Amino acid sequence: MTAAANWVANGASLEDCHSNLFSLAELTGIKWRRYNFGGHGDCGPIISAPAQDDPILLSFIRCLQANLLCVWRRDVKPDCKELWIFWWGDEPNLVGVIHHELQVVEEGLWENGLSYECRTLLFKAIHNLLERCLMDKNFVRIGKWFVRPYDKDEKPVNKSEHLSCAFTFFLHGESNVCTSVEIAQHQPIYLINEEHLHMAQSSPAPFQGQSEATCMCYPHQRNCVQSYLSPWDVVGGLGYRGW
């Protein structure tokens, strides 16, 4: 048997190989632009302002809806924010996307070099785009992990796969943006709906006559017992029970 035959027989042919490393983009020719809020010097409104009233956040949402690579971040000054947009080729049509109160404070080209700061923000912008795609497929984000909540109508819980994924970005060579996909297994996660709330209200807790969610926590964590159930803004009471 030849060496080539052994190679294929051992399952090492290229068609049978799998990888968690993927090439996403080539940086050659990339362009970017940085905006800040012109109405308040270098600052945008404070973070407590609603997104629809914040020029930076509103422009960021519009960029996501237009499938643009974008990211916003806090500036070094307190309560300051800025918006970054990346693209290749011709400049995208930003009419009706960028708020009229934002002003351009920096523009860059690949030919002029890509700083570490700009590269890091590009990775975050790519992550935002991946997050939007996964959200459209009913994934939810918990920390760095993307999880698809369990649907009891699909399969029995003990026969269903509960997998989550996370992404790490790096630069291969001088201009090739790659991602490493990490896959993990998690406990079943459910989305709380009105049915769960009705069940909790109609199921009296032992010896009390009213339902209450109970959690285990350390004595110094007594302040962690208040929670909110979105999107109904219902205050949830978590009873304290010491170890």
From TrEMBL:
Keywords from the UniProt entry: Nucleus, Repressor, Transcription, Transcription regulation
Taxonomy, superkingdom: Eukaryota
Subcellular location: Nucleus
Main location: nucleus
A cellular component term, taken from the record's GO annotations: nucleus
InterPro entries: Mediator_complx_sub13, Mediator_Med13_N
Domain Mediator complex subunit Med13 N-terminal: 13-196
Keyword Transmembrane: no
Keyword Repressor: yes
PANTHER family hit by this protein: MEDIATOR OF RNA POLYMERASE II TRANSCRIPTION SUBUNIT 13, MEDIATOR OF RNA POLYMERASE II TRANSCRIPTION SUBUNIT 13-LIKE
Family to which this protein belongs: Belongs to the Mediator complex subunit 13 family.
Name of this protein: Mediator complex subunit Med13 N-terminal domain-containing protein
Native species: Mus musculus (Mouse)
Gene behind the chain: Med13l
